[in-house]
Structures are given as C-alpha cells and as structure tokens.
Amino acid sequence: MKHMKPVIIAHGGAGGVNHPLRRARGLIRACRIGYGMLMQGSSSLDAVEQAIMELEDVSIFNAGRGSSLNLEGVPEMDASIMTSDMKFGAVAVITDVRYPIQVARLVMEKTDHLVLGGKNAVRFARIMGIPKYNCVTQEKKRAWQWMRKKLRSAYFEKLPDLAEYYGTIGVVAIDRHGFITAGTSSGGITMRLPGRIGDTPSPGAGTYADKNGGVGATGHGEEILRHLLSFRAAQFMARAPAPIAGEKVIAFANKYKCRCGLIGIDKKGRIMCVNNTRAMSWCYIKNGRMHIFRW
Ligand code: GLY
Known about the structure:
By secondary structure, the protein is of the alpha+beta class. The chain has one domain (7-292): (Glycosyl)asparaginase (Glutamine Phosphoribosylpyrophosphate, subunit 1, domain 1, 4-Layer Sandwich), CATH 3.60.20.30. The chain has 8 helices and 12 strands. The strands form 2 sheets. It has an 8-stranded mixed β-sheet. The protein has a 4-stranded antiparallel β-sheet with strand order 7-8-9-10. Bound molecules: glycine. Glycine binds next to strand 8 and helix 6.
C-alpha cells in the first residue's frame, strides 16, 4: 500500500477576485478542514466533499448558497465529483439543495448513472434524505436585478464578455494511499438561459481524475466543455509533472481563446495551479505548509 503525503488544493473561481479577503478566508478554512481530515486518515473523497461543502456555504463563491441566478432569477446549479479509480457522479441544473456536491456523490455511489439533471435530480436528493434549501441570497438577488436592467431584452443576448459573469469552486486532493479525488461545484454563468448546462457536470470538462492525477477547471464553461480541458490536463500529467502539464494546458487554452483556470494534483502529489484570466483565487496545503493567492 502506497504511503503518500496528503495534499489538497482549492480554487474560488477564475472570473476575477472581488472581495479577496472573504475569498481567502473561505479557501483557507476549506483547505484546513480537508487537510486535517486527510492527515487523520480520511479518504480524498471524504476530504474533497467536505471542503467543497465548506465553500458552497460561503456566499461570495458562485456555488451552493452563493450561486448566481439564471435569466429567470433561479439558481440552477451543477456539481461533480470524480476519483482516480474513474468513478464519477454529477448533478446538472439542480435547485433547492444546500450542497449540490453531496447529491453528486450520491449519484456516484447510489445509482447506476453518472449524471442526473433538473427536477429529477431534486427528487433523487429528497429520496436520499437531502432537505429543501433556498440558495438565493439578497446579494445575488441585487446583482441579478442590476444585470436584468442592463440586459434590457427578455431573452439572453450574447454577452459582450462572458468572463465577467462566471465562477466556480473546486477542490482536488490526494490521500495517504495515493487515491485522488477532484470535485467542482458551480452556480454557472449569471443570466444564462434556464436549463443551460456548463462544463461542471461533464466528466473530462469541469472535473476529471484518473491514475495520473485529478483536475478541476473553472472559467468559461462552454469553451472548457468544447475542449474537455480537465481531461486534456490529466493527459498532459501522464507525461509531465503537474506544473509543466499546467503550462501546456494553458498554452492550449490560449490557442483556442478559452478563458479558464485549472487546479490539479498529479500522482506524485505535485501541484497544478494556472489561469489565463484576470485573476483566480486559490489555496493549497502541501507538507503542512499553506500557500495562498496574492491580492
Ligand atoms: N465553469 C462554470 C460554468 O461555466 O458553468
């Protein structure tokens, strides 16, 4: 049995870093909790799920309680989780749950499927004992009202710069046994069409893990999905250490004008943390030392 030193990394989105202190506090807390679990022998699956739940509860992040609202003012959320033995579970356009990542894990462990969506994902959550929860915060309601006035049209127009409107949170960890888990949770793009599904619940797009490493992506979901960016990053990890794989995947993303950020950990516990957007908030703990984004 392998004996690895646990490592955990989290990001709070690559759509810019407003309220950096709130973001830093959330990321530090999530990483500390996840790392503490890993050091006490928990699996990366448990640590990642718990760390993501911590972030889903912090309303500055676009996930869970902080989820942005779609064109009709509804927070439809996506989340996924994947392990290095290639198990995967996800929910798409789910509403009325506090922790979408919990439901994604239940899809992975309790069903024969990979992704459940919409009202039937909500129904599944209830059957699994997940209570109803309203994720709309006053902060997001105000942002939505402001945007609604700006957009004028009743229907989604192509937005001038989608990069302004997206965000996601993600966590990747490796445990003592070298088992890697990646998870992502997102409130999607503000003012998206109802029913829009981003990169987050698609394996290989927003989240991916295999024996070479685990990756979480954030940024412009349509482009991340088109280019299966997390899968691509893990493929690079098969041939190069995580930091080099990060350079390669960002060079690829630049070539296709895909605005994104990626975090990851390879099978040796090396870190990937890259973005080509204005700013990305992130935090990781390795060898007991915490590293955090600058602001
Ligand atoms: N990357 C998050 C989204 O576009 O939904």
